[in-house]
Amino acid sequence: MSYEGVIEQSAAGLKELVESGEEIIGYIYPHVPLELFMAHGFTPSLIRALPGASSGYEESLQTFACAYIRNLYSQRANGQFLTLSGLLFPANTCDSLQNLSDIWRVRFHDDKVLRLTYPVTRYSQDESTTKFLAEEIRLLSEKLSRDYNRPFLAESYESAIDLVQEFRKGTQFLYSARVVNPRIISYSEVVRLVRTFLSIPTMSSISDIREAVSTVQVAADELGLLDSIESVRHAILSGDYSGVRLPEELETPRIVIAGGMVEPQAIAALMHEIPNFSESTLVLDNLSFGFKVVFTIPPSKADDPFMAMAKSVLSAPGEPTHEGLSYRMGAMKGLLKNLSIQGLIVCEQSFCDPDQFEAPSIEKAACESDVKSIRIPLDPEFSDRGRIETRIQSFLETLG
């Protein structure tokens, strides 16, 4: 299915939920406590950039608004948004997102705008960072209860933990399986399953993931790869790669896609348009909407709910707003050195300061890991698609 077809299918499913009476809370920044919204009886849905969104509304945005922000704003101005019960914006992540939420309140009075403020780092000796975010989540919970008359239900919260945990365990297995043998399931299929759940987190989405996991488990068992897959999954979650066991003969080249809030499904569609592209080439992504969401640790039912959700959100691997630069680059080197990676493509969202400030450090980490890298500026519309495809094709040729 084409990227546009996948988007249309996801939008149709979300529309069915709205028409059936489900109350949808949209969110833009991917690292949010999904369990919180479900505990209040809402369905959380990750808002995506659309490749066909018409621009022309920049007069309402400041010059530092990135291509992703402009795309989202244009969707709303063009009437391409479904009617949502609320829209959650992040605070303290980047200037562009902060600006968008401020403009949204002014221009779209009928929309219910919510906000969750994040800490600047995930590490502190006294857990003050976690406590800060836990308090922000608690305040958001109180607002949901007060404004919508939907209390936080402990039973719904625990059910939500189980649902989201099954999603993450299943997709972690699929991601890890591709690291061991990229041909065992296509990258397009893995990120489709991830995106479908994030857009429509229902049991139907989980059923699709279960089916894919079952199919891959059978294939991996026949090939004797189950132990290797689990060793990769454990290594990524723990950061300890000493137990990784990859097959001796791996198809090369093996590349990783890195970047921020870039749509994995769009990357999959782009790569398949490149002549002589092999499914075994793209081994892993390191994107906020893919890898970083999948390998987030679930909340513990034994902890206070708000502290548990804060710890979960802050466990998102490699997220710029959550970790120090040296830690993130150390994690990047761990992936590159221990998973037999030969190439790294760094996607830079147009005008995104976090992406562009981070890119030189990612390139340096790749160089120190003896991995070739290339930076590809892009926007959600792939407005310069031909040039992007040519640069990626040339880069793949340099890898052999």
How is the secondary structure organized here?
Elements: H1 3-19, E1 24-27, H2 34-39, E2 43-46, H3 67-77, E3 86-91, H4 95-107, E4 113-117, H5 128-148, H6 154-180, H7 187-199, H8 203-223, H9 226-238, E5 255-258, H10 264-272, E6 282-286, H11 291-294, H12 305-313, H13 325-338, E7 343-349, H14 353-368, E8 372-378, H15 385-398
Parallel strand pairs: 1-2, 1-3, 3-4, 5-6, 5-7, 7-8
Strand content: 5-15%
Main sheet record: 4 strands, parallel
Radius of gyration: 20 Å
Structural class: alpha/beta
Alpha carbon gap, first and last residue: 29 Å
> Tally of extended strands?
8
The CATH topology of the domain at 3-152 is Rossmann fold
Helix content estimate? 40-55%
Would you identify the regions where 5 or more consecutive residues have pLDDT less than 50? none
Neighbour order of strands in the largest sheet? 2-1-3-4
Second rung of CATH, namely the architecture of the domain at 3-152:
3-Layer(aba) Sandwich
Mean pLDDT: 88
Shape category: globular
Q: List the secondary-structure elements in sequence, H or E.
A: HEHEHEHEHHHHHEHEHHHEHEH
CATH class of the domain at 3-152: Alpha Beta
> How many H/I helical runs?
15
Describe this structure in words.
- Strands 2-1-3-4 form a 4-stranded parallel beta sheet. A 4-stranded parallel beta sheet has the order 6-5-7-8, sandwiched between helices.
- The chain has a domain at 3-152: Rossmann fold, CATH 3.40.50.
- The protein is 52% helix and 10% strand.
- The chain has 15 helices and 8 strands.
- Strand 3, helix 4 (95-107) and strand 4 (113-117) form a beta-alpha-beta unit.
- It is globular, with a radius of gyration of 20 Å.
- The longest helix has 27 residues, at 154-180.
- By secondary structure, it is an alpha/beta fold.
